[in-house]
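retry 2 of 3: previous attempt timed out while embedding adenosine-5'-diphosphate. Reduced batch size to 1 and resubmitted. Inputs unchanged:
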Amino acid sequence: MVRYVYAFTEGDRDMADLLGGKGANLAEMTRLGLPVPPGFTVTTEACRTFLTTGSEPVGLAREISDRLAGLEEAAGRCLGQPDDPLLLSVRTGARFSMPGMMETILNIGLDDESVQGLAKSSGNERFAWDSYRRLVQMFGSTVMGVGSNLFEEAMADLKQDRGVADDLGLDAADLAELVETYKELIHQETGESFPQSPAEQLQRAVLAVFQSWNAERARLYRRREHIPDDLGTAVNVQTMVFGNLGPDSGSGVAFTRDPATGRTGVYGDYLANAQGEDVVAGIRNTVPLDELGRLNPEAFDRLRDHMVTLEAHYRDLCDIEFTIERGRLWMLQTRVGKRTAEAAFTIAAELTDEGLITADEGLARVGGDGLARLMFPRFDTSAVGDPLAHGIPASPGAAVGAAVFDSAEAVRRATVGEKVVLVREETTPDDLPGMVAAQAVLTSRGGKTSHAAVVARGMGKVCVCGAEEIMVDPQRRRFTAGGTTVEEGTVISVDGSEGAVYPGAAPLIDSAVMKYFEASEHTDGLVDAVARAMEHADRVRRLGVRANADTPEDAARARRFGAEGIGLCRTEHMFLGDRRQLVEAMILARTNAERERALTALLPLQRQDFTGILEAMDGLPVTVRLLDPPLHEFLPDRTELAVRLAAAEAHGSPPSEHDADLLDAVNRMHEENPMLGLRGVRLGLVAPGLVAMQVRAIAEAVVERRRAGGDPRAEIMVPLIDTVEELRLVRQEVEQVLADVSTESGVTVDCPIGTMIELPRAALTAGRIAEEAQFFSFGTNDLTQTTWGFSRDDVEAAFFSAYLDKGIFKVSPFETIDREGVGRLVEIAVAEGRAARPGLKIGVCGEHGGDPESVHFFHAAGLDYVSCSPFRVPVARLEAGRAALSGTETGDSR
Ligand code: ADP
Ligand code: MG
Ligand code: MG
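retry 2 succeeded.
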């Protein structure tokens, strides 16, 4: 027969699937001999059975009453016993800690009669009535569904009536009166009475926990976090201990290290004469935990001992809930605690030093997302006041600007050089221009997948969303938060890493971690911890890490950040600025001679670009991609031109011949879908001389560098190949130019020639393409666009947040590689490419190359390197190291 109930003495921490996280850890603490009030756990399996059949699993009631008998025997009193009742708590506890399910119910077992017994046995009448009123309130709201605000209002009325500030001011008689009010409330609202049978209270509470698995908020949370809907929750039933028995009692929370900085020490909050949630509910002011050392040195020392035991046992930062009952310490919960990125690195380094974990484990516990956050400048929180509001840290970084309340205003002010923060309740595609113009986006609604969050992350813009304390009033062009009103134009500071909003211009401090990467400056413990994680990652990683860089400056920075080459050197920006004239001339050329003249003028400029980059990356590979974007991107805007010509005509002046030619060309080259039009290799095949000029510039730069004593390692990469024929043709041209330059200069130039794989057809015919390609580089941005049929700029702003909210995908496929679809194309291309050409070098140069989860995929797919923007290089190095550790999770430990 299936077993549904386990005593705390029967489980351990490896049983979290069955007992939930809380239950497994309560059992583990019991096993360690820590003082845990006795109890038992109803399994997740019982919950699953309840959820599928809709009724209480057969035999569950029996098992519960057997276990209860055990508790009663140990306690020497019974549930509901009128003179000295045993009381219980009923607590949820799923596999993953999860908001939205039922709140814990304390003091189950009290009724009108046993409350008197409790008063006598404890010798504390106030305590008995306080416990009872809490039960009626919690049971009434969580099990019977009465709005908790009604109870809170009744309590507030009574306090006002008695003229007292907090709940401690109410005496036993007041609380007894409150219980009556509560019971009437329940009756009014439900037509039912508060159950006077403790057995019924217990049974209903357990089933209510099961039911709460499907509460609206819990379901939403699971969908967003992709937690399976069929796991179910466990229920923990535990003997009560009382922190509300007087000044020598209390409740608290503790961390074995500071979860903000990772430093060792005593961290936590304590509240005397309080039960359970009072500590975090903010009903009275808590005191810092070390105050407990003065209030009750003995319990404090015990607690410290237990903290040491737990940390050594879990080999990690633990987060603890405890209660002191008349001087005696009880442990009520522990788990491996959440922490900031700073703390994650510091703790990993310290635990490694202490010999508690290996360097591999230390590396597994930090992550690239956290590292990226540590690289941004931060606000100097010691110099700013309290935050105006808190929200969800949706896109990291720190930004300062004047608050504006609509897109048009953001654009208007930004155009004249003002820095602005766009503040909206929520954003829509209409807000896009304002988001582009703003330094940061702040919304009062919506989560990590809201429109604001998705679009801001895509743009790399600071964003705090869901700052619920903020009331946005776009009509009056202001918002209020707490007591403060912020009018349009008032400067505010937005911290997208922490999710905080500050009044005024908060001073920024540079990131010490960034300084370390820039200049190897070792300034503090955090930097040391980061440096050690990086060194270990570099030791263990198999994947190479390169950077996407198009200028000597970026190349040099990438190198400082640890890049082992350039995986993507785009050439399009080399056609802008003053050179636009020459590009125009090339496009408008009517004769070969004209075209050649334009190309010849471009050649030395291009050569100079490449010489600088090859010098900065001396000795390391530099993959240069031939021109990719459609040529009309280099021509003036169509409407602008038409207006210019019309204006000239209206003034009666003769239209400029050049403008007319340009307009002709622009019209001729206009494309409905430029992303799928004349670009990439197609351009090289139909625009005569373009490829030859680019390759000559590269080859001559190589010659120049070689003559200067350098070690240039240029590689030539052809974009947007669909079929091997395209590559074959371009390759012939490239080889011809390389041979010409070699002959002319007497220096042999033999750059490897490879291709991007960024169209599904290329991936699917990779075996053929590999016959002509010496290397592959996956362009996962275009490959994602073309595999999904998404135009990134259009879809992200228009409907991605809706897709994310509906759970169609967990993250945007432009942020993290879509393993099932795009990833499968990558795998096919790797396998077939290498089958055709063993040892084929393969990399990736899309933005995914700097995304932690994607890096793990590329490692597993057998790529040789990832390439990403210079600032993401450290992230990629770290994650490549983590990926090489077998069997580690991909996520941050945060
Ligand atoms: P959450 O998961 O929201 O933290 P818990 O189940 O931990 O909920 O319970 C909420 C509060 O009630 C906690 O402060 C906890 O310490 C307290 N609590 C739970 N069970 C008991 C008990 N048996 N005796 C005293 N306090 C308890
Ligand atoms: Mg808890
Ligand atoms: Mg591309």
